[in-house]
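Contributing new records

If you add data, match the layout below exactly. Sequence lines come first and carry their own label; structure lines follow with theirs. Keep one chain per record. Anything else will be rejected by the validation script.
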Amino acid sequence: MAHAHAHAHSHAPTHGPVGVVIATRNRSASLAVTLRHLLALPERPEIVVADNASTDDTRALLAREFPQVRVLALPSNRGAPARTHGVRALRTPYVAFSDDDSWWAPGALTEAARLLDGHPRLGLLAARTLVGPEEEPDPLDKVLADSPLGPADDLPGTQVLGFLACAGVTRRTAYLDAGGFHPLLFFGAEETLLAYDLAARGWGVTHCPEVVAHHHPAPAPRTDRPAVVRRNELLTAWLRRPLPHALARTRDLAADARHDPHARRALREALARLPRALRARRPLPPHVERAARMLDAEPGPRPSRPDQGGTP
């Protein structure tokens, strides 16, 4: 581990302004594919892998085949907040997130740095995501591009309050200012809450389709994902939205739970976490709540992520 650390730093001056953080767990084969793509980029990004206590050969593989990659060997599975450890470990002004099944197109990080350099209020940009070898557009791309929030004078692209974690580039100071990914959600649909928290602190969050990420999810979907997504959507409502909204969402989920096992599990897990959510509750400022309400009225497809960063 120390060797990898020292090795990475001996080349530090040649790295670009955008570092890459990957949170992973027990997905060494797909992680190796991702790292080969990232290490071949013309931007030569510094890469930090935050390993969520993998029990497979992830750490041995990293030490053997990727000594130039920094590894944060986390003692337990931290979920999405593992990325925050990676952001803190990097010293680049900008941080791009990859999952262990996604990577950035050549030139994408240069374009992201140009947009962030030119727009000081931009806290996070959501890239365009091309899925699989066919490079199909992720359904979320159209939802983001059609966002009713529209453009802002001092920001590039279209204002949004959501993104795909495997296709987000953030300003390091903005990410840390907003507190990063919230530990209560652990993993799954964790992006909306971070977008809310960035906007609440005055940072812009926009969709910039000229920045491109590639996502190659495993073909076998994880069966627990629908329950986790619904649980975290409800917890996000309790953490940041007005009480009538949170109560209405809870009633909707309870109604679905009568006939849907995913909804039943989501409701059970959300209620178990509700005391912690209430203690951490911080309603959005009025202008962000208005934006969130506009987006509530726009139904859209879920992000096409059958598998999320290898972390259960």
